[in-house]
Please model this.
Amino acid sequence: MLPNHAAFDLDMRVIHGLKPGKRLFICATIHGDELNGIEIIRRVLASSLTKHIHGTLIAIPIVNLFGMLLHSRYLPDRRDLNRSFPGSEAGSSAAQLANTFLTEVVAKCTHGIDLHTGSNNRLNLPQIRCGFEHDETLRLALSFGAPVILKSKIREGSLREAAENLGIPTLTFEGGEALRFNEFAVRAGVAGILRVMSTLKMIPAGKCSAAKGSPVISPSSRWLRSPMTGVLRSACWLGDKVLKGDVIAKISDPLGTTTTDVVALFDGIVIGRTQNPLVYKGDALFNIAWVSDPTRAQATIEAFEEEEFEEDQFNLFTETPLP
Ligand SMILES: [Zn+2]
Model:
C-alpha cells in the first residue's frame, strides 16, 4: 500500500474465452512514466476482435502505480522494476512487486508482451526487442509486424529474463516516449498484439490485417553520443537512413558562433533519438541500428508508417466493453 494506506493495486482485465487456448499477458508501465502502453492495452480491450477469444488474455495497463503517480520511471529508493525480477517477498518494494507480478500473473501464462517507450526525453521508433535463440519468440516477433526487430541481449533482472527462465516466450515492444502518447507507436502496438493473438490462434486467422511488409531486422544498435555540450539541431528523424560520415546534426552555443558536427559512425537507420535540444558532451543523441541495406530499410519503415495510418479499425473513442 501507499504511505497513506491507500491500496497499491495491480488492476487487470482477464478475458477467458469459452474455448481453451494459449494464455497471453500484455502489460505496460513497468517503468512508471512509460504511458503509451496504457492506450495500447485500452484499444486492444476495446477491439471487437478480443470479445470472443480462445484461451485467456490478461491485460495489466499499470504495473508500476507508484512511478506512474509520480511521473517517474522508478519505485521507492529509485529501484527499477525491470531490473528487480524475479524479486522476493522479503526484498525491497520493487522486489516484492516483481515477485507478485511474476508468480501471480506471468507464471500462469504461456506467452507475454511487455510494452515500453523510450526513457528520459528519448523517442523510439516502434520496435520489437528479443533474442533470436528461441524459435517461438522469433515467430511471435515476426508475426507482431513492428517496423523493426532488434536483437537484444537479455538484461539481468528484467521481466523478459524472468519469463524466459520460466519457459514463457516474451516480447518487449518499444515505441514512443515517456509521458506522451504517440499515435504511430500506439497503432503499431495494437496491431502487433492482435497479430500475435492471431498467430497463437486466440482470435481467428484472417480477422486482423497482416503486416504488409517484412520488418527490418537488425543484429545490434548503438547510441551516437554528443561530441560537445550545447544546443542540438537536426533534421534526422526516426526511420531515416544514415551513412558513415554523414553529418546528421549540429551542436552550437546559443548564439551559433561555435558549431560542432555530429557525424554518423556507421551505416544504419535511426530507431531512437533525444527530444531534448540541450545536450551535454557524452549524452545519447541517436540510437542507430545496424542494417546491411539502409536505403531499403528506410523504404520499408516508410511503408509501415503509411500502412498503420490506412487502417480504420482503431477508433480513438471506441468504449471498452464491460466484462
Ligand atoms: Zn521501459
Observations:
- The chain has two domains: 13-216, 220-294.
